[in-house]
Amino acid sequence: MTERPRAWTGFVPWPHDAHGTVQLADVVHRYGRGGEDVTVVGPLDLSVTAGEFLVLVGPSGCGKSTLLHLIAGFERPTRGTARVSGDEPTPGAVAGAVFQTPRLFPWRTVGGNVDLALRYAGVDRAHRPERRARLLSRVGLEGAENRRTWEIPGGQQQRVALARALAAEHPLLLLDEPFAALDALTRERLQEDVRRVTAQTGRTTVFVTHSAEEAVFLGSRIVVLAKGPGTVALDLPIDLPRGDIDAEELRESREFADLRTRISHAVKTAAAG
Ligand code: ADP
Ligand code: MG
């Protein structure tokens, strides 16, 4: 195992080695006990390399959230192994996570929510204000420190959730349908920000959605999951331009439309199967 940096202070890309890699090998996951067992995932093999932006897309109930829970260490696979950066994942210690709802603490300000994450990440009090300011600026919320979380719109709340997920500086970021509850325009803006932030910070990312459009815009690779139990139906590298891009132009391009159609078909087939 390679040595992990104890404190990562700058927003420089993670070295592209074992940090943030994911390996699911022969994974089967069942819920329930005794005769009531339901297999919801597998058998499934899936590896994510460092720096990759993997989007998991598939019909509702195909096991996308369960897969993220297995990667985060919230659940242990019934069979097979889950590894993050080469090790069995310890819950809360391997990945930053963003969920469909922001799950912020309403009695804390925007800055207070980020501070708490920094505290849990072991950042000492003296360094928190600077780190907090940098994180908020990273997600487009500079100057919002003292706002109440319930005062700001849903899109901004998700930005706070993203800042919080970045606070611990895990090389892996897991996002479970984080924009599903947002309006279309806000959703597009946040997609652009997530694409930029993950590229700038070199995070390995696993992002769950049921939107083909979102998958194609974000992913450097898309895995379509089929239902009952969740298995890989399609595994497709996406070589649309990354880095500094004109998002509008990309979304309107022919390649984008073709990929969206292809993923959309694959999801429909996966849902029917
Ligand atoms: P998705 O995120 O793709 O919609 P989930 O991973 O949430 O799918 O769920 C996959 C299946 O597992 C669903 O049929 C769901 O009802 C079931 N399931 C999810 N969590 C649990 C649980 N804690 N106990 C029992 N069944 C569960
Ligand atoms: Mg889900």
Note down, in words, how this protein is organized:
With 273 residues, this protein is of the alpha/beta class. The chain has two domains: 1-94 and 171-273, Rossmann fold (3-Layer(aba) Sandwich), CATH 3.40.50; 106-169, no CATH class. Helices cover 35% and strands 22% of the residues. It contains eight helices and nine strands. It has helices at residues 64-72, 110-120, 128-138, 154-167, 184-201, 212-218, 247-252, 254-272; strands at 22-31, 38-48, 53-57, 79-84, 95-98, 172-176, 204-209, 221-226, 231-237. It has a six-stranded mixed beta sheet, with helices on both faces. A three-stranded antiparallel beta sheet has the order 2-1-4, with helices on one face. A hairpin with a 4-residue loop joins strand 8 (221-226) and strand 9 (231-237). The N and C termini lie far apart (40 Å). Residues 1-16 have low confidence and may be disordered. The structure holds adenosine-5'-diphosphate and magnesium ion.
